[in-house]
Here is the input.
Amino acid sequence: MLWSDPKDEPPKDMRDAQAMLRRMLVVLLLATVVGIYVLGVAPF
Here is the structure.
């Protein structure tokens, strides 16, 4: 790869969408764990 080659990264709007999806996944995971704990399904 030459120094003059363009960077191989997605456009800014795609990176923003990926970051938003990652945050939503973390929130969904935490909500699932809290929901399971509140419902008393898991013996924590």
